[in-house]
Amino acid sequence: MNHKISVRPGAGAAAQIVQYNRLRYSNILIEQPVIIVVERGTKILRQGDFECVIAPGEAVALQQGQVFDVVNAAENDAAYLARWVAFDPQIIAAFHPTKDIGTPIDKAHLLTGLQPAFLDAFSAAARAVAEPECIPLPVARHRVGELLIWLNVSGGFFRPVNTTSFAERARQNLMGDPGTPWTGSALGKRLGVSEATLRRKLSAEGWSFQQLLTDVRMSAAMQMLQSSDVPVLHIAQQVGYESQSRFAARFRQRFGFPPSAIRGHRR
Q1: Is the same domain home to 170 and 145?
Q2: In the sheet that 42-47 helps form, which strands lie side by side, from edge to edge?
Q3: Are residues 145 and 23 in the same domain?
Q4: pLDDT tens digit sequence for 49-83
């Protein structure tokens, strides 16, 4: 898989994570149901008293809407390496799990002792998302759906999630194009409310407009830093910052380390 984030509407998204240091990311929202396979290093997920450790050669399925503190730990001089496939909501809605062999995933479902056939299905799903010019959409949807079957027979399945929170609806609109010079008025118009109503509804859920916009932009930047070779300056521009130094300051404020920490010596 090329080192980039691939998104295919109607099927899902896929990417590879490469990270050169042990880093802790706080309050990471799982935006889509996702399966992550750790190939090198260790991933740790924490939520209150809950902790899940994913070792090399293991995988984890994460339910949409959950918020974790995440540690990706590189080993010695070798980079942390993982791959992920996220599922389009249409795929989740159309899937009918066999409930007598699996239970709905609440937070995270650890997958150990991965069979080669599971890893083959995972790779096929990732390729189907990443290669639209070679693989027709119906075939891609079938391959991504096959990965859900493997998850089901491994003991879990994703529940469809209805986005009812106003802040979640706002976040989804911002995520569609984080580089847009968003204003409260423009977002309110997108959501069918006045700017005053937008700010009041966000405040009731613990957000300001600027806090939510910054969080969306920093989360998008984090993913691009982990899963692409796009230069930091270009990532800054893609999430709405013309100044790389201002972007780096915002990123450090959000995560506690600079953008360069993810890529080690690379930029």
Answers
A1: no
A2: 23-29, 67-73, 42-47, 50-54
A3: yes
A4: 999 999 999 999 999 999 999 999 988 778 999 99
